[in-house]
Specification:
Length: about 350
């Protein structure tokens, strides 16, 4: 089935529902795929006879499993569409992951990127939607006498060469073996994160627009670093901190939050742990006594939405810089590693 330019393996979902004699199904999908959500539900109900319900809360990644919130509803199966599994996360209700595979062929964009690549050994990384095209991407590079290198990644990574906004391990693993990286995908967050995580040149080839970027990634990286430096500077005078602990299954870092709290206490600063499912400016606004927040939840909260918050929201690494236990020269992107 095609949904918003992506291929969804509907037959696999139908087969699983039938094989397991499932009666009640909950479907999770990211907002970009929801336009035809009703069509998908109707098709599943018609072909399986099961009751299929849609989880309407936002879903940004495989870190966000609905299963905990669905307990008590008699749901037999969660179908999580649009993300690949994060293997370290255990679901309380049986969950199947169904990737949304991009229908865009990346080869033209990759061929365009070749002149911008640095050196001959190229680390190749991508997001879930383009994983199936990695072989084609490597073929293009080989045709231009380049050597593609694909990293395995850490325990949160389901497929070789895949990166998440919170996990660049598939790039970090191979950074010493490559001259530069080719990112296949859209948006700036992943290539900028990879550039910050590896300190190697990153060139992005966007299969949707055909655009190749290199200088823009450097510009965005510099702008981000300036903004993060400013946030750190503002936080230097803060005395009361809120440490955010994400409640989503794949964002929970309580031990990290407690480590940060101890650091703050040692430096004479007050802090409180804030347990949050969904972080937003509106949610934080009410905590008027707190001068600064530190997010141990999704690293994108502090970076992507930075302009929306009236008080600094730091990553754990940035708090370490504020407290003088890490120098600015050792700045790295925050990542969730387990
Ligand atoms: S923690 Fe954030 S970056 Fe990581 S998978 Fe979840 S939504 Fe994506």
């Amino acid at each position: 089935m095609e949904l918003a330019g992506y291929r969804i393996d509907l037959q696999r979902i139908i087969d699983i529902i039938k094989d397991r004699h499932v009666k009640s199904v909950a479907v999770q999908m990211p907002e970009g795929l929801r336009r035809q959500a009703q069509t998908l539900v109707e098709a599943l109900e018609k072909k399986t006879g099961a009751t299929v319900m849609l989880c309407a809360d936002p879903c940004y990644g495989a870190c966000d499993l609905a299963s905990d919130r669905l307990r008590g509803l008699g749901i037999d199966l969660v179908v999580h569409i649009g993300h690949t599994e994060i293997p370290t996360i255990k679901s309380t209700i049986p969950t199947v992951y169904v990737n949304a595979v991009s229908l865009r062929d990346p080869t033209a964009a990759v061929a365009q990127a070749v002149p911008k690549l640095v050196g001959s050994r190229i680390g190749v990384v991508t997001t879930a939607q383009h994983l199936e095209e990695l072989t084609k991407v490597q073929d293009v590079l080989r045709k231009h006498h380049l050597t593609p290198v694909i990293g395995k990644g850490g325990p949160r990574i389901a497929s070789h060469g895949q990166i998440l906004g919170c996990d660049f391990s598939a790039g970090i693993d191979i950074q010493d073996q490559v001259d530069s990286f080719l990112f296949v995908g859209s948006g700036m967050f992943h290539p900028v994160g990879l550039a910050l995580a590896t300190h190697k040149p990153v060139i992005a080839a966007d299969p949707y627009t055909g655009k190749v970027t290199r200088e823009e990634i450097e510009t965005e990286k510099d702008a981000l670093l300036r903004q993060r430096y400013a946030a750190i500077a503002i936080a230097q005078t803060a005395t009361r901190f809120g440490i955010i602990v994400g409640l989503k299954a794949g964002q929970q870092r309580l031990a990290e939050a407690q480590r940060l709290r101890l650091l703050l206490t040692e430096k004479g600063k007050a802090s409180v742990l804030l347990l949050l499912d969904q972080c937003s400016p509106m949610v934080l606004q009410g905590f008027a006594e707190l001068e600064c927040f530190v997010s141990t939840a999704c690293p994108r909260i502090a970076i992507d939405d930075r302009a929306l918050y009236s008080r600094p929201v730091l990553t754990p690494v940035e708090l370490e810089v504020v407290l003088g236990v890490r120098s600015w020269d050792e700045y790295v992107f925050d990542q969730i590693t387990s």
